[in-house]
Amino acid sequence: MIKGIAASPGIAIGEIFIKKEDEAVIEKTKIKDAEKEIKKLEEAVKQSKTELREIYEKTLKNIGKEEAKIFEAHQLILEDPELLGKTKEMISKNKENAACALNKITEEFLSVFEAMGEGYLRERAADLKDVVERVSRKLVGVGGTDFNSIKERSIIVARDLTPSDTAQMDKEKVIGFVTETGGSTSHSAIMARTMEIPAVTGVSNIMGQVENGDLIVMDGTIGEICIRPDKKTLDTYEKRKTKYEETKRKLKTMIGKKTLTHDNHKVEISSNIGTPEDLEGVVLNDGEGIGLFRSEFLYMNRREAPGEEEQYEAYKKAAQTMEGKPVVIRTLDVGGDKEISYLSLPKEMNPFLGYRAIRVCLREVELFKTQLRALLRSSAHGNIKIMFPMISSIEEVRRAKSILKDCKEELRKEGARFDESIEVGIMIEIPAAALISDMLSKEVDFFSIGTNDLIQYTTAVDRMNNTISNLYTPYHPALLRLIKMVIDNGHKEGKWVGMCGESAGDFKLIPIWLGMGLDEFSMSAGSILRARWIINQLSKEMMEKEAEKVLGMLSSEEIESYLHELAIKMGIDKV
Questions:
Q1: Does the annotation count 500 as an active-site position?
Q2: What residue ranges define each of the domains in the chain, with the CATH number in brackets?
Q3: Active-site residue (options: 74, 187, 381, 476)
Q4: Are 426 and 440 in contact, with CB atoms under 8 Å apart?
Q5: What's the whole-model pTM score?
Q6: Of residues 56 and 455, which shows the higher confidence score?
Q7: CA pair distance 411, 403, nearest whole angstrom
């Protein structure tokens, strides 16, 4: 067996189709006519734009609106005056050929991304590489892979797959893909999950181990592949595939059911979304609300901030689609790994500890008020709740609430409708907030625990740093104690407490969060039915005892091992 990264769940068995392309060899040559070379660049850009529009239309039709937006962003890259302007300037000044100049300017851009960290910026770098490679191929006269030649039931093996590669796959023929590079958060991985195609990424040197037509079996749920399997391995995978499909059908029976434990304790299973287009998946998976609407995605891949009306329409759509179910919208959370060029945020040595999230909003008051007004107005159409991110002090909460109060007063004078008693909460993602959660609970209506950052800030581990990734763990005793403290302090003031980090959907941790008293679990839409099935198998009273045991353990390893055995014992490890 060969291990990789579990990028998209599912099991596939099929023949390999290797994605091979003639390399776009870029050589530096001196040119005599700079204007002619610039026109050559402009023609390559024009052709690339045409292709991207075609891919956009195909993606919109076959995959979805949200996935198609990737190619809108790609077209914007080709309109970036700085990228093309600097390339043209280099052609004119240094008399370099267009392909070489474009490659050099692109490397400058990529070095800036790398200096600022990974995460969201890593995907922006991937987008830039994808677009520039398309233009470069035009400039040097090299074609791409012909995906039309793929046979039925093929598994694509590639060094890398760009979003445009994934968009051009025929879902009727492609049943999985394996790549040497990429991760679970890459655009291609996200698109694979949307298309329900199993994917395993990060498989070292896979291209050197396979040939076209080889049989391969893969499990995208655990990130495992086997090349040229023997009969015993093939039989094992056939059985696992059958069981996986049966589990999917079983989970579908959870639609329409309450999330209720054996001893009649009810909790809420909500979903995290980035844009209104994600709502479809929440509805299909019977989500009980939106636990986190990441509003910053409305601000990205554009030249200026969205206005009040545009935001109002987006939030209103979420409120109306959820038909009275809670919709928690996080106010603008930028900085860190989420850069927005038009905001001109300063370049920082450590952006995750810098000028980001609520800190930006409390300085950019007009930007903040535009969003708050839109949120308030949308609350007239459903159960909207407002949540402030990266809170570390009571002063920040009070200042944010004061600005919200001003917005309410403005809207009253204008005669605009909004929910006068709209709930206001905060994310608990900084240890300082967790430690004063007894005081903060008197200031807000709810807490939502953001485990992704809380783990990182509590353990001093950059969650994007592969070198120390083994230290980034949701099983750390300090983290579990902080979370229990937050839940208890919220409940003492009669406030509900949710969780919107990745750990909310972890099958090993769900029983412990339940035992600690968590009221709301928010996760990706595809995890909702699985979490509901798990909770419906449990007893709240029994999980309280298990949580107490875990809170007394000394190490991450001990806790994870115990929870793994507990999951097996309770039979919840198979879903």
A1: yes
A2: 2-20+146-250 (3.50.30.10), 34-140 (1.10.274.10), 253-570 (3.20.20.60)
A3: 187
A4: yes
A5: 0.71
A6: 455
A7: 13
